[in-house]
Specification:
The chain is built from 6 helices and 4 strands. The two termini are 35 Å apart. The strands form 2 sheets. The chain has a two-stranded antiparallel ribbon. α1 (21-33) crosses α4. With 144 residues, it is mainly alpha-helical. The longest helix is centred in the middle third of the chain and has 14 residues, at 77-90.
């Protein structure tokens, strides 16, 4: 029997990346504006970094100087692991440094998490309410 493919997981682990306090606080404001936590924001950013959608400038010097604290955040395991692989290939010192770089880029508005939801285009003969995600009688019948 062939080995089972790993399925995508939404498992999260509470981690403590050491990030510049001011950067973390500003990222927390940005995340709160999207009704999210910084952990959710970091999960999205790490996933997009791992996929090559988002890049960060690789620092030439050690960025782990003072003014940093460990901040608790529940971050997606799959995104963390995939980003860690790319981080190692690119020579970024640690996951804490990567998290800070991603949050810096977000705070500076050079990277957007792009978390805005929008209704999809309606299909032919589909009531506009269903296209917008509303529960309608036809949705209820098709789910039964």
């Amino acid at each position: 029997m062939p080995p089972r493919k790993k399925r995508a997981t939404l498992a999260r682990t509470t981690r403590r990346p050491h990030v510049d306090d001011a950067t973390w606080d500003r990222a927390d404001d940005i995340a709160a504006g999207e009704a999210l936590t910084v952990g959710h924001l970091l999960t999205v950013l790490l996933d997009r970094y791992a996929s090559g959608v988002v890049d960060v400038p690789v620092p030439e010097a050690d960025v782990r100087a003072g003014g940093r604290s460990g901040h608790l955040a529940a971050i997606g395991d799959a995104a963390w692991a995939r980003a860690d692989e790319r981080r190692e290939r690119e020579g970024i010192q640690s996951m804490s440094v990567l998290c800070e770089l991603l949050l810096r880029e977000t705070v500076a508005e050079r990277v957007s998490a792009g978390l805005h939801a929008a209704p999809r285009e309606p299909r032919r003969n589909e009531p506009p309410e269903e296209a917008a995600g509303a529960v309608t009688p036809s949705v209820l019948h098709s789910a039964a």
